[in-house]
Fold each of these.
Amino acid sequence: MKVINAIYQFLVGDMIILTGIIIAIIILFLIEYLPLLSSLRVAMGPILIVTVLLVLAATLSREAFSKR
Amino acid sequence: MQWAIATAAFLASAVEFVEALTIVLVVGVTINWRSSLVGAFAAALTLVVIVGTLGVALVQYVPIVVLRLIVGIVLVLFGLKWLKKAILRYSGLKALHDEEAIFEEKMAELRGRGESTTQLQPFGVALSYKSVLLEGLEVAFIVITFGSNITTNGGIGGIASAAIGATIAGILVIGAGVLVRAPLKRVPENTLKFIVGIMLTSFGTFWAGEGFGYNWPLSDAFILILVALYLVASFILVTWLKQVKQHQTEVIAAHKDAMVTTEQEGVRS
């Protein structure tokens, strides 16, 4: 458990960032490999960018409002 | 000598070298040069072993797409972590853990005294290593794919010509890196960390997208658009957080005033 925690702290140390990026990877993976979602492949880049920005805004919001 | 191949390899490799150098420079300036160079040299050594062992078969055995995806995701994670800290500092909302604050204060103190921390930082070594390894592999791919498409009768072959082009690009880019090293030291610490966060997130997004097979418009030049996009978004976030901080300060001040008034009224009665 200590090793996992050390890797987590080293890599990111923030649950919102980690969860958000994992969700983005899952979404992109599904778009890439599910024929049903193949029409969304052209939007993979913008989806990734928007997710990254949303994750950043979410983690900053938590920091800003948790201080209240 | 195949000039067309050498020139094409020079240009394509220069882009990859600049990308690797950017990360090596930011690690060197923000963490320390020892960690940055150890990571870069370890990656160069790994590249020598990989290229020496596999030779031109490298293209078949190294899953460059998977590597791009993994490095991209890790860079996005690192980048967002740094960007978050830098934005919080710019807006006046500090969100550092005590241990990190102590460590960073110590680093700042050492820098203030003109000393530098030469202790190896795993974070810096890993960042430098991964970036140089990925970009180095891409250069090797460029040399092999560009060079192996040409068959020659005597003289310097296609791969050798591509390798010469890539080597010249490497020397020029590293030389430029040495020149910009000194001016970078004068940039304030939080600004540097902010730039690092922007660069890591931009490169990470780009490589992760490529790892998923997405073809970015304008190819590698799209990294500049990503940088601009994240810069604009960060400035908007800093402005918003400053307003939040100001509002919080006003609420606390009003609350304190109310407390004092209540106490004074209690004393009078």
Amino acid sequence: MSPAPDPALPVPALAGFPPEVREAFQRYRTDGDTTAAEKVVIAAAVDYRPAGAGVARAVTDDTRLIEDLGYDSVAVAELAFFLEDVFDMTISNEDILAVRTIADLRGCVMRKLAGKAGAA
Amino acid sequence: MNPVVTGVGFITPIGNDRDSVGLSLREGRHGIERVEFLGNPDLPVKVAGTVKGFNVESPRWREWTWPSAVHIPKDVVRGLAPHGVYAFCAIEQALSHAGLRAPDIAGDPSTGLYCASAGSAMLLHHNVAQMRAARGARGNPLGVVSSIAGTLNFNLGAHYGIIGNVCGFVSACTSSSHALGYAVDDLRLGRLDRAIVVGAEELNADSLLPFAHMRALSGCADPGTASCPFDVRRNGFVGAGGAVALVVEAPAAAAKRGARPLAEASGWGQAADGYSIAASHPEGAGLRLAMERALADARVGPGDIDLVSAHATSTPVGDAAEAIAIARVFGGRGLHPVVSATKGLTGHSLSVSGVMQAGFCILSISGAFMPGNPHLAEAARECDGLELPRATVARAPARILSNSSGFGGSNVCHVFSAPGRFTG
């Protein structure tokens, strides 16, 4: 079993995110709260959307990364790397190519986290 | 017809706008401060030409800050290196000065972008370390575009929608002089109507300390005297960061939109030493030839030059070589133009050097003054016959010769002329 990360340590990748997102991540780290982890995933998906993508709308499960949030291939790669870095996991090309919507993205990350927890 | 400069933007150790830079140059105010790198007070680098008003020390863009008047979209800043933030701010200023807005140049086939940068050693190191920590399994998708030497062209070309051409120059301390030179040629050849020229460098342990290991930096701890070009006490350059941007236009294109020419880019020349990877030719042979070629290209003689903006970085070998070269071009004909070495005030910002001097030349022409050499106490023997005033000369230069020299023996010189004294 790998040692649990110290929840008191700041996560540099989350600097600049709203306090509630950083707090959610701490809850995930300390309590394994997967709802809190989902909050971080959605905040990241909103954060990495290209600026020129038009008016932001409310993000729901059905919101599509490319068609609705204006993602391009570079922004998708950035989002995937951010999530890999924050959650210390690997998202393969196949994984990310299968992601169309926010629900897909959340499901992808949650499956990875469940796999990590199982492996630990 | 020679191109004209219609806008300048400055992020420099001596000011982040035209007015403050001009005042610093006139009053001989330097922008050098005490610094400490990597928490090691024992390093022999004690001072540097720092950029104020920014915090781009972290490898993580989310921790960066820059002047609030400049809006850099989040999806743009993510791809930038720290010096890309400086470059962005300098270009915004230059466009505004030229009376242009970003939408005016987006998608314009007659606008090109000419960049000079050595890349970001800090981000390259950070990104590669991150990749190695993950045993190659993952890395920052923007690691390449944010850190290698083309980072300015990649990011700024895309952001501003530049379609005339986008290019970058890597010739060490002549990089931005090369960028300006090839922009001038493209404008003269009618390939473009407008060029944005920008040079930028960051200042951090990764960018600067390797020069200390070459024994190229001053170990002097006094910000007021460490950079003293042409002085007998000079003992190495003082590192600096920053960015300078110019808008250069074909005269007809500038006139068509009612832009005011600040100066003419009258001609340029280059030559190489073929001598050493880093040291100048002892008698400045390549620099002398580059000066002569620039004068010939501008169709002027040495007697037409009022001011020489020296490259002089305060190194023992480089300054001596330049002094000899200047003396041979001018002194040999009984001419003594004012020689001004502004790195005494700014330190040496490497890739930015040439375009920073070009920006200072524009301010000298429009502000009718020639900067002095306030850190010069005792001129070195090689400077005999050079006119090196300590204080600012309150006289308008009609024509300026601006020198740049870089590693590998690269030398590039430009001639700038006051409006109304055009040579074209």
